[in-house]
Design brief:
The chain contains 23 helices and ten strands. The protein is of the alpha/beta class. A hairpin with a 4-residue loop joins strand 5 and strand 6. The longest helix has 21 residues. It is globular. The protein starts with a helix and ends with a helix. The structure holds iron/sulfur cluster. The site of iron/sulfur cluster has 15 residues, from helix 14. Iron/sulfur cluster (SF4) binds next to helix 14.
């Protein structure tokens, strides 16, 4: 078994039996679901909206080269700079070079999963640059030294009491602050950070090819502050985030908002089209967009898996996933958790190390049913399993186990060879360890089907 898989199994076992963890997650996910059920009423025909969104993303991903080049042309015409990064190191080097050019000592950041993917914060810290997360959930995670738990709600696994304790321990905040007081306390700290920062870094929700701009969606206004006070704005994104036209936002903004947080539209939606012009009063002096591949072209090259590039990172598939509900976000030990994480992580970080994630699914299809861009997530999980078998990623014992299982299941004489008691004993002997102490094994009937058939006198 691969090391990552061992860690995953062990962590899953611990988390799935941690009832306090489950209580907190189920509370948060229930709230999300209530909001989503209400928010989706904004669509008179949600099904058509999802199909249309899927078609737009399909067209875009099929012509990714064309749209990315169109974006680059339009964005650079207005003075913006585009940097292509094949892997995390190239993206990190590009950010560091800009920081050195600007003699930057401090960076403010808004929420961005791609920067988690390339491990930007520890990299900049190692180079003596202070990085401050400004999204409240991300700020909480940064204070506690943890990665985001969920792509939309990074600290959803923490209770308000835990957050108050964290602020008291780390920032010397008065003990027992209420959520509103914690927000005000954080605001006081962050306001000064925006003013002092040399560079603001944001993620990207959508790249807009026809106008060469970047659309960013957020609820706290922190991305706007990150891009207004510092003199330099760097936006980092995966290459799949592109949409053909600014007009597509009329569909994708509400889809993202309803599926991400149950809102009809997210509070702040901003389109950044480059650095400040001579006659303008706001905006940075320089704006860069870093386009990251990091395995996405591997997905593109696979005709079946390609549709996973349609993802708009709304997090809805995580919220409905029975596996995520039990093991939580950190157990995946990957930037992207839940069903979409299980689908794409093997392409981004290696099939051998992460194929086990595709097995962490009941294949109930709830993820596929909720996805706003209609990605066939559960089928892609099956596809990944198939790929991993073909690539011989499984262990020898697993292979032998399945061979024996197949042989026995296809042979009536073998199925009848022993009675239920012996079969139960064998199952216990072989699977007790992998099945775990907290689940009961299936019970074989005392008599075989043939014995029962004969007993009825047929
Ligand atoms: S796969 Fe679909 S549901 Fe899951 S995060 Fe992406 S867009 Fe949302």
């Amino acid at each position: 078994m691969h090391e990552q898989e061992k860690i995953f199994q062990e962590e899953s076992r611990i988390k799935a039996t941690d009832l306090e963890h489950r209580r907190k997650i189920n509370y948060s996910l229930t709230q999300s679901d209530i909001a989503f059920q209400k928010g989706k009423n904004v669509f008179s025909d949600l099904e058509s909206a999802r199909k249309r969104a899927k078609n737009i993303k399909w067209e875009t991903i099929e012509h990714l080269n064309k749209y990315l080049l169109e974006f680059e042309k339009k964005f650079t015409e207005r003075g913006g700079k585009v940097i292509w990064a094949e892997n995390p190191q190239q993206a990190l080097d590009a950010v560091l070079q800009i920081c050195k050019q600007k003699q930057a000592k401090s960076v403010v950041k808004s929420k961005s999963m791609v920067t988690e993917e390339i491990h930007l914060n520890p990299f900049l810290s190692r180079h003596g640059i202070e990085v401050v997360e400004t999204d409240l959930g991300e700020y909480i995670q940064q204070l506690s030294g943890e990665a985001p738990y969920h792509m939309v709600a990074p600290s959803m696994h923490k209770s308000r009491e835990e957050v108050a304790r964290l602020f008291h321990d780390k920032l010397n905040a008065p003990p027992g602050l209420a959520p509103e007081e914690l927000t005000l306390f954080t605001r006081q700290i962050l306001r000064q950070k925006y003013v002092d920062a040399d560079i603001g870094i944001t993620g990207v929700n959508f790249l807009l090819a026809d106008i060469g701009a970047v659309a960013v969606t957020e609820n706290e206004g922190n991305a706007r502050l990150c891009t207004s006070f510092p003199k330099t704005h760097i936006a980092i994104t995966g290459i799949e985030k592109i949409l053909p036209s600014v007009n597509d936002l009329a569909l994708f903004w509400p889809l993202l908002a309803t599926h991400g947080s149950g809102q009809q539209v997210t509070v702040y939606n901003t389109i950044f089209s480059g650095a400040r012009k001579e006659n303008e009063t706001d905006g940075p002096e320089d704006m860069y967009v870093i386009l990251l591949d990091n395995g996405r072209t591997n997905i593109l090259a696979d005709v079946t898996a390609r549709e996973s590039l349609f993802c708009i990172r709304c997090g809805a598939c995580l919220n409905v996933c029975p596996v995520f509900k039990n093991i939580g976000g950190h157990t995946y030990n990957a930037t992207y958790g839940g069903p979409i994480g299980s689908v794409i992580t093997p392409y981004l970080s290696g099939l051998k190390s992460y194929k086990h994630l595709s097995y962490a699914s009941s294949l109930c299809g709830a993820c596929t049913q909720v996805c706003p861009v209609h990605i066939n997530l559960h089928e892609l999980l099956l596809y990944n399993r198939n790929k991993s078998v073909k690539a011989h990623c499984g262990s020898r014992s697993e292979k032998i186990g399945w061979l024996l299982w197949k042989k026995a299941c296809l042979n009536r004489a073998m199925m009848n060879i022993t009675n239920g008691r012996i079969k139960n004993f064998m199952i216990k002997l072989l699977f007790r360890k992998s099945w775990g102490d907290n689940r009961s094994l299936p019970d074989f009937a005392p008599k075989t089907f043939n014995e029962l058939w004969e007993a009825t006198g047929q």
